[in-house]
Write a structure and sequence with these properties.
This protein is α/β, with parallel strands linked by helices and 338 residues long. The protein is 33% helix and 22% strand.
Length: 338
């Protein structure tokens, strides 16, 4: 990080600090958003943020314009959800690192809310696992998918107080907390939506991961300007404690596809304000799941991809065992007042 103290247009959600150390300049190296941003570090607690910060009201237009969910179809989402409850699928998710999703912790009969549910895949999978599921999503492109798939998805955010008559046994946020301008307010609001003995499962990029250290500013999970906060174990633990939660479990998980994309991104030359061909053709908005393939050529490419990712899978599972993986999965429960 480059030196120099500055103030930013919002306070740190972890410690309420307002003095930050200025860092590297960054831009949208995936989808071509034209802005130039900086990574800044809180002088009080070390939490990393993107500056300038986007506001909640900016998000629908941002995601509706730049995120490629508009290319998703209901048939693609439904196909990806097939077999979610099978043991073979569970083993495949573990080896591929795509079990970094909170819906896989849901229990039969529970009521689950997914904040930032994307195209609705998590809701379909929760249904197949025997749960009831509701979703919240800012991207307006998701609404036609939700209607066609028969899903209960509110377009907006949790502060809109959607589904007011439902208390949830599980609230999940899959790669979402880092997108939210004021994550402390959202965690506080979740308190009001949890049923007795309810829990929260969050998954987010780990800024202390091996790949982040190796890749520097080319780490794919800086994902500027969509990622507004960049958490470590330490900074998120402080945030959770401040918001009245206790961490009951945590582990790192590295999707093998992320590693392949990271290698490709490290060689890719991005141009500010221009979409990258790597992300236009190499990955969907949800990079946990490869796009559905239909043609013979696509099936052959998927076979080659599988052969490449087998050794990557063994490497990533070892990295995760040491806690150096690219994403953190954290389970929280509210601290009960005495």
């Amino acid at each position: 990080m480059k030196s120099g103290a500055t103030t930013v247009d919002t306070e740190c959600p972890v410690c309420s600090g307002s003095i930050f150390t200025t860092g590297e300049e960054a831009f949208d190296d995936r989808y071509g958003h034209p802005g130039l941003f900086k990574i800044v570090r809180c002088h009080g607690c070390g939490h990393l943020m993107t500056s300038p910060q986007l506001q909640e009201s900016d998000l629908p237009a941002l995601y509706g314009t730049y995120y490629p969910r508009k290319s998703l179809t209901a048939a693609m989402v439904a196909k990806q959800s097939q077999g979610a409850a099978s043991w073979s699928r569970k083993v495949a998710r573990w080896f591929s690192g795509t079990d970094n999703q909170g819906q896989y912790t849901v229990r039969a009969g529970e009521r689950m809310l997914d904040i930032g549910c994307g195209g609705g895949l998590s809701l379909l999978e929760a249904h197949l696992l025997g749960a009831q599921a509701w979703g919240v999503e800012a991207d307006p492109n998701v609404q036609p998918l939700a209607r066609e798939l028969g899903l209960q998805v509110h377009q907006g955010n949790l502060q809109d107080k959607p589904f007011p008559d439902v208390q949830f046994d599980l609230v999940v946020m899959n790669q979402v907390i880092e997108h939210i301008p004021q994550p402390d307010l959202v965690l506080a609001e979740i308190h009001t939506r949890l049923a007795p003995n309810g829990r929260v499962v969050l998954v987010f990029p780990n800024v202390n991961s091996l790949w982040c250290k190796l890749s520097g500013m080319r780490w794919i999970n800086w994902h500027i300007p969509y990622h507004l906060h960049h958490f470590s174990r330490q900074s998120f633990s402080r945030l959770a404690q401040r918001c009245g939660y206790r961490i009951t479990a945590q582990r790192t998980i590295t999707p093998n596809l992320w590693t392949l994309l990271q290698v490709r991104a490290s060689r890719n030359v991005a141009v500010q304000g221009q979409p990258s061909a790597l992300w236009a053709t190499g990955a969907p908005a949800d990079v946990n799941t490869p796009p559905a393939s239909v043609s013979w050529g696509q099936r052959m490419r998927r076979t080659v991809l599988f052969m490449v990712l087998v050794p990557v899978g063994f490497f990533n599972r070892l990295v995760d065992a040491f806690g150096w993986g690219d994403s953190l999965l954290v389970e929280l429960v509210p601290v009960k007042s005495s």
